[in-house]
Amino acid sequence: MNRRTLVQTGFAAAGLGATGCTGAPSRKAHDEMPLESAPHQRTLMQWPVSLEVYGARDLAAAQANIADIANAVSEHEPVALMAAPGARGLDRTRLSGAVEIWDIPTDDLWCRDSGPTFVKNEAGDLAVSLIQFNGWGDKQPHANDARIARRVAERLGLPIIDSGVIGEQGGVEHDGAGTLLAHASCWVNDNRNPGLSADQIAERLCTALGAEKMIWAPGIIGADITDYHIDALARFTGPGQVLIQIDDEINPDDPWSIAAHETLDILERATDAQGRPLTITRLPEPYDIRARADDFVSSYVNYYVCNGAVIAAQFGDREADAEAHEILTSLYPGRQIVQLNIDALGASGGGIHCATQQQPA
Known about the structure:
17 strands, four-stranded mixed sheet, about 350 residues
């Protein structure tokens, strides 16, 4: 199953904008999700094993991409790769010595979604703020993946704080200074949070991540398995600073283009938790890429920031790849920009950010 090839059922509710999470951030001073660029103790990843999802050939290609990402990250910080003993296709010799294998069974590779969301208190102590994973609204088997966050917390001896929401961390961005950004399509959705309003979900997410304000954009319900995660389109690079990958003009025949420009319009009118206009950097779409499938996800924005480096994708469009490298260099000065061929993940509807999860130092 490709994460981006489900029948389109229309857009999420229009007209959503900023939601002040009144009363929600009572824990903010104590438990807050640090910005991804803050120092890490390690990176967590998952080894995919599901033949039902991938088939043998595509599974082998996805596993090769995961090994490449793990090895690239491990040059800058430790990596813990979760896999059951004897997991299908797992070959220790393909992995760097800085990649540790943890005995935690997995189904798929998307650790951003099923892995733990770490929060930190004023003393620097970590906890896991549990966003319950249900296979993107029960679209995919997830018996092992649904338990990964709890199993990691147990292994590390960390407390678990139930967020009260079902969903995925890939569906929400936090600027590390009180502002969240999300597409409502993957949260205000009966396949995750039946009976909860946008305001109720925003309050719970703000409490879970230590934020004060949610910026909602509609997104698209049903066009892909994730219901349009924000981290394929726009990312916070710092407090009040957004990077968005977008075409120059709206394509009226492309629902992804329409939804992306709707998100951009909301961001251009939004303010952060401190009331400041957002600083927005635009990143171009690649066109002359290796992949030929219409549903291939060619997102430069789906990169991962680790200690000393940014691990990002390249898609074979020399001009666009070089421009993405230049923009990321300007946004993350002092960090090495490492670009990888992760076409197997793009063909599966995701990217490097989707496959990684940081444990803050």
